[in-house]
Amino acid sequence: MKVAVATDHGGFPLKDIVLRTIKEEGHEALDLGTFGPESVDFPDFAEKAGNALLDGRADRAVMMCGSGVGVCMSANKMKGVYASVCHDTYSAHQGVEHDHMNALCLGGRIIGEEVAREVVKAFLAAVPMQAERQLRRVGKIKAIEAKN
Fold first, then answer.
1. Contact between residue 102 and residue 60 where contact means Cβ atoms under 8 Å apart
2. What are the 10-residue block averages of pLDDT along the chain, 148 residues in total?
3. Is 66 helix (H, G, I), strand (E, B) or coil?
4. Is residue 71 packed enough to be buried (19+ CB in 10 Å), middle (13-18) or exposed (0-12)?
5. pLDDT value for 86
6. Rounded CA gap, 148 and 143, in Å?
7. Domain covering 2-147, topology
8. What pLDDT is recorded for position 141?
9. For residues 55 and 130, what is the distance between their CA atoms, to the nearest angstrom?
10. Which residues are catalytic?
């Protein structure tokens, strides 16, 4: 699986551990920046990761900012990007399985490296469920998206 990784300066401290975890789990990481701790704007990096999902360069994305909230809000403005802040393993895998989440958002000022590592692993290992109830609910999400 190809995984886009993008972060602002607030998430930058987690970037190396996220990239390393993706590779250790047997996936390909697409590093979309930022490439240093200088202040940058999180919406720019959420958009880069979202575009990688939408144009097929990535199958999933991990986005980071200080809290995870800014990149999450920005990414969810893009049709076809389904992002959530997850700072625990249950939400990370359940979001993929039940809700077909394709973008994981992390807060670099909220969680440490080991928790980030475990959350990313849970996100990557999860497979979207195809049961009727999950598909019905995901369909309703997409219908809301199409109306707005």
1. yes
2. 98 98 98 97 98 98 98 97 98 98 98 98 97 95 93
3. coil
4. buried
5. 98
6. 9
7. Ribose 5-phosphate Isomerase B; Chain: A, (3.40.1400)
8. 95
9. 23
10. 65, 98
